[in-house]
Amino acid sequence: MQRRSRSSSVCCACQKQQQTAPIRQQQGISRRDLALAAPAVLLSAAGRAAALEAEAAAPAGAAEAAPSTSSSISSLPSADLQLFIDNDYELQVPSNYAYLATEIQRVERGPQPERSPVLGRFEAPNGQPGLITILTRRAQAFKQTLLQVTDISQLGDPIAVAQLLLPRGSTLLATATQQVPQPPKETPLGLVEIPPQNYFLFEFTTNTGLHVAMAAAAKKGSVLICGASTTKEQWAQAGPVLSRVVKSFRLRSQQGLAAL
């Protein structure tokens, strides 16, 4: 089991796998593009996939072809999933996926950069296409509401939410809803029953050649998204495991944090 707190850089278990990721700052983008930061990050694997396809198309000897096939097989997500715990969420991650740091450097003078919408990223081994990303955005960035959004269903049904979250040009293949029971809350008047937490699940393809499984949930006015993507060609083999990863995504409550 891995645990990470954003108050420190990365947990010890993650440091063994950690790779340095370039710091990305979002500047000069529209409100909708900022709201769609989640699908945009999910699509970042597309460039890497295209590069791999170009490399495969280049002339190569028969001796080089065998290692390439072996590398492709080993890059598939492992069915051995490990629990990863963060302050805001937890999920099961393939044991052969590497955690990527997304820390933002502090500025000595002047305003501090906005907190990155990326809460966590895990990448397939051997530089192969395959990415698991957890992101957060304010619910108001997707849809204006009078009340604070505490459940994803407050933004609409799964089809309506898909229209808010999915990148343009995507083809929605399937939706589903998970209802997760919540523990009762202690109050001065006694225990209060809390309604189940809704998780909307989506499966879709993009016009850039990706196949994506995604889960979305909400709490305290924010939408948290977990997406797992790979190329359409690899989905037949990688899809079942990546779908398990997305279905394992859970928000963490303050009660859960206090129990640690």
TrEMBL record:
One GO CC annotation:
chloroplast
Extract the InterPro entries matched here: Mog1/PsbP_a/b/a-sand (IPR016123)
Q: Which domain of life is it from?
A: Eukaryota
Q: Where are the transmembrane segments?
A: none
What is the recorded name of this protein? PsbP C-terminal domain-containing protein
